[in-house]
Design brief:
Fe3_Rdtase_TM_dom, 49% helix, transmembrane, three-stranded antiparallel sheet, transmembrane helix, alpha/beta, membrane
């Protein structure tokens, strides 16, 4: 546990700060709308549901501001490069960008549910107070719009007892944009479930771009000004503490309190999301520019098990080990971009990827190259982008573990190590590298091209970690995995179990690839 906290303390601090900010914003907004005199009359109609709706709206704005930042891959790569000389714990939060993206999405779902439920109560209470006909304060406030001279100072958005809640919802800016944004959110979240994402990636890819609809609706959601407050001038003239009990005598006599005047709450969502949208637009513009640069396919090789290797060249392309790129083939789909780990080494004159058939897009791409077309189909490339594997050379001992196609991130690393040894690179810290290859029927490894081969099959992890700990009693060991969650869970426990309590002795640091 101590080892885990030592390497993840900044990630934990960031997560706790984010949760704390959500709690603070919710409580702050809730108390403001529950206690502020400006909303006294609004609360007479809506009750506590007003505070729940507005507090959840504050948190929705905050998390909608945060949701795009973890997927700005160029920004993250820049930060990773900036922190390349920092302590490894300072770079850890960057490795969990997609996890944080998911957590923010879950938080948005929670506060959306609170916001929608609260406003369902609000609209129902608006409707009831309009139909009350009982002379209550809520009824009087709901009928302020019927006074012609005060038609711009209404409090209840339902202006007629004959107007249904459904009609008010779909004919108001706030109601209609709320319905559309919620529908888009539900579609995005459900299509992002792991089963759909793994087996129907195209569905996930297209549906996830509904975030554009969500952001637009969020930005204009508050234009209707449904949530209203008493104006400052009206507060000075007729404070609710002095006038709320004499509401039947408003404007009746010269000495009576004046009717309160109300104004819509100004839209605020755009203020929260403007900066991250600007960053994201710059991100997408940069990615679009790079995707338009010419890519030359120098070699296409079909390996066993329907694995396609593409070797390519691109002007100005520069990579590091463990990085990945996004690939698009316009002849298959103009809009779809898929991530692939680079399997070449930085020392090579080309960059390469290995593609396994795992869906309609990859199957179509492999089928296209199997036909050996001339000329070859155009390929667009965006990237490269950084991953946790870039830190592999920061460790004296590295253990690389890949399952299935998960061995591809380490092909680049193993090749680069071989080149560095050949060139006697004295800056290389790594002295030991362990890797498992699933192909042992050829003279060289199918991915790395190296002659060195290791054992086939699933290792006994306790034996492996015990052996490494005994062989390197005072080393910092980096364990890198690209594989399933169940394996990650086992390896993380082994790293904790075999790390010494003494920080001067062997320490295992677990790192998992995520895309």
């Amino acid at each position: 546990m101590g080892n885990w906290l030592a390497s993840h303390w900044l990630s934990v601090l960031f997560l706790v700060s984010w949760l704390g900010l959500n709690m603070f914003l919710f409580v702050y907004a809730f108390l403001n709308y529950e206690q502020s005199d400006k909303y006294y009359y609004t609360r007479q109609i809506l009750g506590t549901a007003l505070a729940f709706a507005r507090a959840s709206a504050f948190c929705l704005n905050f998390n909608s501001m945060m949701i795009l930042i973890p997927v700005c891959r160029n920004l993250l790569s820049f930060l990773r490069g900036t922190c390349s000389f920092c302590n490894r714990s300072l770079r850890k939060p960057l490795d969990h960008n997609l996890l944080f993206h998911k957590l923010v999405a879950y938080m948005i779902c929670i506060f959306t549910a609170i916001h929608v439920i609260a406003h369902l109560f609000n609209f129902e209470r608006y409707s009831r107070s309009q139909q009350a006909m009982d002379g209550s304060l809520a009824f009087v406030l709901s009928n302020l719009s019927r006074h012609e001279k005060e038609k711009d100072s209404w409090l209840n958005p339902i202006h007629s007892p004959n107007t249904t809640v459904m009609h008010a919802t779909f004919t108001s800016v706030a109601g209609l944009t709320g319905v559309i944004a919620t529908t888009a959110l539900v579609l995005m979240v459900t299509s992002a479930m792991e089963f759909i994402r793994r087996n129907y990636f195209e569905l996930f890819w297209y549906t996830h771009h509904l975030f554009i609809v969500y952001i637009i609706c969020l930005g204009i959601h508050g234009l209707g000004g449904i949530v209203r407050r008493q104006t400052e001038e009206s507060m000075d003239e007729s404070h609710p503490h002095n006038c709320s009990k004499s509401f039947l005598e408003w404007d009746k006599y010269e000495w009576s309190c004046r009717r309160p005047h109300f104004v819509g709450h100004p839209p605020e969502s755009w203020k929260w999301i403007l900066a991250p949208i600007a960053v994201y637009i710059f991100e997408r513009t940069l990615r679009f520019y790079r995707s338009r640069q010419k890519v030359v396919i120098t070699k296409a090789v079909m390996h066993p098990s329907k694995v396609l290797e593409l070797q390519m060249c691109k002007r100005g392309f520069s990579m590091e080990v463990g990085q990945y790129i996004f690939v698009n083939c316009p002849s298959i789909s103009f809009l779809e971009w898929h991530p692939f780990t680079l399997t070449s080494a930085p020392e090579e004159e080309f960059f390469s990827i290995h593609i396994r058939a795992a869906g309609d897009w990859t199957e179509n791409l492999i089928r296209t190259f199997e036909q050996r077309p001339s000329p070859m189909p155009r390929i667009a490339v965006d990237g490269p982008f950084g991953t946790v594997s870039e830190d592999v050379f920061q460790y004296e001992v590295a253990v690389l573990i890949g399952a299935g196609i998960g061995v591809t991130p380490f092909a680049s690393i193993l090749k680069s190590i071989w080149y560095k040894f050949q060139r006697a690179d004295h800056k290389l810290k790594t002295q030991k590298a362990g890797h498992a290859a699933l192909n042992f029927d050829k003279a060289t490894d199918v991915l790395t091209g190296l002659k060195q081969k290791t054992s086939f099959g699933r290792p006994m992890w306790d034996n492996e970690f015990s052996r490494i700990a005994a062989a390197h009693p005072k080393s910092v060991v980096g364990v890198f995995l690209c594989g399933p969650r169940t394996l990650a869970k086992s390896l993380r426990k082994c790293c904790q179990r075999y790390s010494s309590l003494d920080p001067r002795k062997v320490q295992f640091y677990f790192n998992k690839e995520t895309f």
